């Protein structure tokens, strides 16, 4: 759903949305291991600015609800340091998302968001949990 929101944001964004997105992008740095509350809030604000620019209330509400539920997985993945290279990659993706949305590049915004989500903290935690479940099943079987 995040790639859809990014695509719609690129299509439907207003000048106010672009300003809000750029302002939100100035706040978050890629999340380090053990981030503070301010860092987590800034990261969420950036993604919320993209959702808002989609101008799709159902999608916005769904993504906000999912964000609430996924926070526990983000925190799990943040227990280890991803390293500077991974953090730099995330910062670059944020910058590219802003530019694609601002330029109205739907396909670009969708693709970058897809990559961003595929390597996100939540996705990383889910993969870890999946491996743990597989290992547990193998030991029990």
Could you characterize what this model shows?
The structure is a single chain. This protein is an all-alpha fold and 141 residues long. The protein has helices spanning 2-12, 15-26, 37-53, 57-77, 84-103, 106-118, 121-140. α1 crosses α3. The chain is globular and about 40 Å long. The relative contact order is 0.18.
Summarize the structure.
This protein is mostly helical and 141 residues long. The protein has helices at residues 2-12, 15-26, 37-53, 57-77, 84-103, 106-118, 121-140.
Cα distance, first to last residue?
Answer: 36 Å
Q: Unreliable runs, pLDDT <50, ≥5 residues?
A: 134-139
Helix percent band: over 70%
Q: Determine the oligomeric state from the structure.
A: single chain
> Which percent range describes the beta-strand content?
under 5%
What does the average pLDDT come to? 84
Q: What is the approximate shape?
A: globular
Number of helices: 7
The largest sheet, given as strand count, sense and whether it forms a barrel, is: none
Topology:
Blueprint: H1 2-12, H2 15-26, H3 37-53, H4 57-77, H5 84-103, H6 106-118, H7 121-140
Task: State the main characteristics.
mainly alpha; 7 helices; 141 residues
